[in-house]
Amino acid sequence: MYVIAVYDVGEKRVGKMLKLFRKYLNWIQNSVFEGEISPAKLEELKIKARDMMDETTDSLIFFYSRQEKWLGKEIVGKERNPLDNIL
Fold it and tell me: What is the pLDDT of residues 53-75, one digit of tens each?
């Protein structure tokens, strides 16, 4: 599945959350990530993220799509982290 993930966490947890999410998805900008991920890996990411976050003040939002091609994307201005799909 294709996922866009956004998090809003306390300042003390931002660096740890960034490091965690980079293991699973592609960093787009600030607290925004996207990429293909299996349902099992997504659940693993959610469990690890919940362990780090304070659920009374922090939040995670996941947007799902079957494939990236079903999702339109337009970038206005500077692209923060262009994805290179070169193998």
Answer: 998 999 999 998 876 666 666 55
Q: Which residues of the chain fall short of a pLDDT of 50?
A: 86-87
Q: What domains are there in the chain, each with its CATH number? A: 2-67 (3.30.70.240)
Nearest one of 49, 46, 42, 44 to 14, comparing CA atoms: 49
Q: What does the DSSP assignment read for 2-35? A: EEEEEEE--GGGHHHHHHHHHTTSEEEETTEEEE
Read off the tokens for 35.
Answer: 């990429």
Assessment of whether the complete model's pTM goes beyond 0.85 = no
